[in-house]
């Protein structure tokens, strides 16, 4: 028996949440796989659909309430009550985006383009689309198809394939 | 540190096969490294390689996005020029360190 590790061949990533950090974690992992020459597919469902919905993708936010890891610049604790004030969530989200831009992390639409340019595939969940009353026209041009979860699983076969739920 | 000979030049490489002294690089060395991956370099490849070398020499972090904005190739073109893992392959051929970038 040969115990040598075999390299990862394919990743199938499921993004079910729509906050900035959830979406970006999924996008970085997908694009990171593509960059390594690993076959990558990403399936957006529930609030994750915001990331591929044209009207929503530029307006992702990070939650300032109920986010215990939240800090102000300089590592100062972020009082939850502050997060409830009007526009604080927008301000924090804008700050996150500007920090990411400095690291050359692209906006969501450009990230999707980078993934498909490298051969990655982007899918939307049919059930969640029906729930949110979305049609294919509402989605980014980089979305290949609207699938059932069964269809998506059908694409996740093969040796050294991992399904990652974020 | 290992020594490896490319196009008659003995270069220092690390365990991953990346050159550790980019001064030892020249076009012939690049062609020989590329040939190991069955890649034949065109003028377009060299334009990208030069861009990568200049970018890193200026101290900037290298990302696929930056290459896509270089005006030389778009991202799709970059994947076509250096198939598989383009940033890894291109930096290896450019004689610069393996990029420590997630994007």
Describe the structure.
- The complex is a heterodimer of chains A (166) and B (103).
- Chain A is an alpha/beta fold and 166 residues long.
- Helices cover 34% and strands 19% of the residues of chain A.
- In chain A, α1 runs parallel beside α4 (108-117).
- Chain B has 103 residues and is mainly α.
- Chain B has one domain (2-93).
- In chain B, 44% of the residues lie in helices and 10% in strands.
- Chain B has helices spanning 27-36, 43-57, 64-68, 75-81, 86-93; strands spanning 2-6, 9-13.
- A two-stranded antiparallel ribbon of chain B has the order 1-2.
- The longest helix of chain B has 15 residues, at 43-57.
Describe the secondary structure blueprint for this structure.
The complex is a heterodimer of chains A (166) and B (103).
Chain A: E1 10-15, H1 20-35, E2 39-44, E3 71-72, E4 76-77, H2 80-83, H3 88-102, H4 108-117, E5 121-125, H5 126-131, E6 143-147, H6 149-154, E7 161-165
Parallel strand pairs in A: 1-2, 1-7, 2-5, 5-6
Antiparallel strand pairs in A: 3-4
Helix pairs in contact in A: 1-4
Chain B: E1 2-6, E2 9-13, H1 27-36, H2 43-57, H3 64-68, H4 75-81, H5 86-93
Antiparallel strand pairs in B: 1-2
Tell me which CATH architecture of chain A applies here: 3-Layer(aba) Sandwich
Total of helices of chain A: 6
Question: Would you identify the regions of chain A where 5 or more consecutive residues have pLDDT less than 50?
Answer: none
Radius of gyration of CA atoms of chain B, rounded to a whole number:
13 Å
CATH H-level name of chain A... which superfamily? DsrEFH-like
- Secondary structure: number of strands of chain A: 7
Number of domains of chain B: 1
SSE run of chain B: EEHHHHH
Largest sheet of chain B: 2 strands, antiparallel
Distance between the termini of chain A: 33 Å
Shape of chain A: globular
Report the mean per-residue pLDDT of chain B as an integer. Answer: 94
Strand line-up of the largest beta sheet of chain A = 6-5-2-1-7
Reading the helices and strands of chain A in chain order gives EHEEEHHHEHEHE
Major protein interface: A-B, 16 and 18 residues
The level-1 CATH class of chain A: Alpha Beta
The helix count of chain B comes to: 5
Strand content of chain A: 15-25%
How far apart the termini of chain B lie comes to 28 Å
Number of strands of chain B: 2
């Amino acid at each position: 028996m040969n115990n040598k590790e075999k390299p990862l061949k394919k990743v199938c990533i499921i993004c079910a949440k729509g906050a900035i950090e959830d979406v970006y974690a999924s996008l970085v992992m997908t694009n990171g796989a593509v960059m390594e020459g690993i076959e990558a597919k990403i399936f957006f469902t529930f609030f994750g659909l915001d990331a591929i919905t044209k009207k929503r993708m530029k307006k992702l936010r990070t939650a300032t309430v109920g986010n215990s890891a939240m800090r102000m610049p300089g590592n100062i604790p972020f009082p939850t009550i502050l997060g409830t004030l009007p526009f604080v969530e927008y301000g924090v989200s804008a700050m996150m985006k500007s920090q990411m831009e400095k690291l050359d992390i692209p906006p969501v639409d450009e990230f999707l383009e980078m993934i498909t340019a490298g051969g990655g595939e982007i899918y939307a969940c049919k059930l969640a689309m029906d729930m949110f009353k979305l049609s294919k026209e509402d989605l980014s041009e980089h979305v290949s198809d609207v699938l059932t979860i069964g269809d998506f699983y059908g694409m996740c076969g093969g040796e050294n394939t991992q399904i990652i739920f974020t | 540190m290992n020594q490896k000979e490319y196009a008659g030049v003995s270069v220092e490489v690390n365990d991953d096969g990346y050159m550790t002294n980019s001064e030892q690089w020249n076009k012939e060395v690049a062609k020989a490294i590329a040939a190991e991956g069955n890649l034949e370099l065109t003028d377009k490849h060299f334009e990208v390689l030069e861009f990568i070398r200049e970018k890193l020499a200026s101290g900037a972090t290298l990302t696929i996005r930056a290459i896509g904005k270089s005006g030389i190739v778009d991202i799709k073109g970059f994947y076509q020029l250096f198939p598989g893992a383009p940033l890894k392959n291109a930096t290896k051929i450019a004689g610069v360190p393996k990029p420590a970038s997630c994007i």
